[in-house]
Amino acid sequence: MTSVVVIGSVNLDIVAVADRLPAPGETVTGADLARYPGGKGANQALAVARLGADVCLLACVGTDAAADEALALLRAGGVDLAGCVAVDEIATGVALISVAKSGENQIVVAPGANRALSPERLVIPAADALICQLEVPVETIAHAAANFDGFFCVNLAPARHVDVTVLQRADLVVVNETEAAWYGDSLAACHGMIATTFGAAGVVLQKNGVDLARTKPPRVQVVDTTAAGDTFTAALAVALVEGQSPEDALNFACAAGAAATTKAGAQPSLPTRAEVLQLLQEAASEG
Ligand code: RIB
After folding, report:
1. pTM to 2 decimals?
2. Beta strand pairing status for 151-155 and 129-132?
C-alpha cells in the first residue's frame, strides 16, 4: 500500500453560509453557522486516507476542546496521529470561513498551535511520499524538503515566501492561478512537475514549462469549494506515486477535487476512492 506523510495544519473551521460573500466593509446577514474539522494539512491527510493510502500527519494542536473537535474525523478515518503534538497554552488553529450559495468562499486563519510546528518537533518517518502546504512555519517545510527521501509534494498555499531549496527539491508543486501569479518567475526554480489549477476552467500539469497533461473537472453541482484544492493535491500526489500516467493522474485528481465541492464543509466533503472512480465513470459515459 502507498505510504504518505503529511506535514501541515489542523484547524477548526467556523463556517457561515450566506447568500453571497460581503464586499470589504460590508455586512451580510442571514447566514447559517456550522463547525467542521479543517486545516489544509489535516484535509490533505484525510483525503489521502479516503483514497486508500496509509497516512500519518505531523502537526500541532492546542490542549483545548477545539483540538478534539478538529481531530475527530482524522481519528475516525484512520489517519496515524502519533506525530500530532498537543501544545500547552496555545489555542488550536481556527479558520473563519464565509461560503456563498454559489460555493465560493473567503477564509481567514488564526494559526494558533500550527505556529508551534517547528523543525525540532518533526520526526519524519520513511514513506513513499511527503505532502506539505504553507499554513505551518516555512522553516519546517524547508527542513522537511532537506530530510525526506521519497516523492516530495508542496502545495504553495497560502502563498508565502519559501526557501528556494523547497522549490528545487519538489517533485510536484501545486498552485492555484492566484498563487501561480503571486510566485511568478520564481516557480522556474522547480524542475519537477507543477500543477496549476484554474477552478472549473481546468488544470494543467507541466514540467520545465512543457505540458504533460491538461484536463477539465467533471461537471458537478457545486455546494462548497472548501478543501477542493486540498483534495486535488492529495489525489494527484497519490496517483503519481502509484505510477498512474500524468494524464490519468490529472483526471483522477480533478474528479476528486470536483467531488469535494458537492458537499458542505472541509473534511465531511472529502471523497473516497470509490466515489472518485464513479464520478470519472459518469463523466466518461456523458462524453
Ligand atoms: O483549504 C481549506 C482549508 O483552509 C480550510 O479547511 C481552512 O481550515 C483553511 O486552512
Report:
1. 0.97
2. parallel
pLDDT exceeds 90 at position 127: yes
Pocket lining: 143 vs ligand 1, CB cutoff 6 Å: no
Residue 112 beta carbon below 6 angstroms from any ligand 1 atom: no
Residue 200 confidence (pLDDT): 86
> Which residues contact residue 135 at a Cβ distance below 8 angstroms, ignoring those fewer than 6 apart?
8, 9, 11, 39, 40, 41, 93, 109, 111, 114, 157, 158
Q: Over range 222-240, report the average pLDDT.
A: 97
| Residue spans per domain, the chain | 3-21+32-281
pLDDT of residue 286: 81
Minimum-distance ligand 1 atom for the alpha carbon of 38: 6
> What are φ and ψ of residue 177, in 5° steps?
-65, -35
DSSP state letter for 78:
T
Residue 287 has pLDDT above 80, yes or no: no
Give distance in angstroms: CA of 37 to centre of ligand 1: 9
Exposure string for 41-80, b = 16+ CB within 10 A, e = fewer: bbbbbbbbbbbebbbbbbbbbbebebbeebbebbeebebb
Query: In this structure, which topology does domain 3-21+32-281 adopt according to CATH?
Result: UDP-N-acetylmuramoyl-L-alanine:D-glutamate ligase (3.40.1190)
CA–CA gap between residue 209 and residue 169 (Å, rounded):
17
Supply the pLDDT for residue 81.
Answer: 98
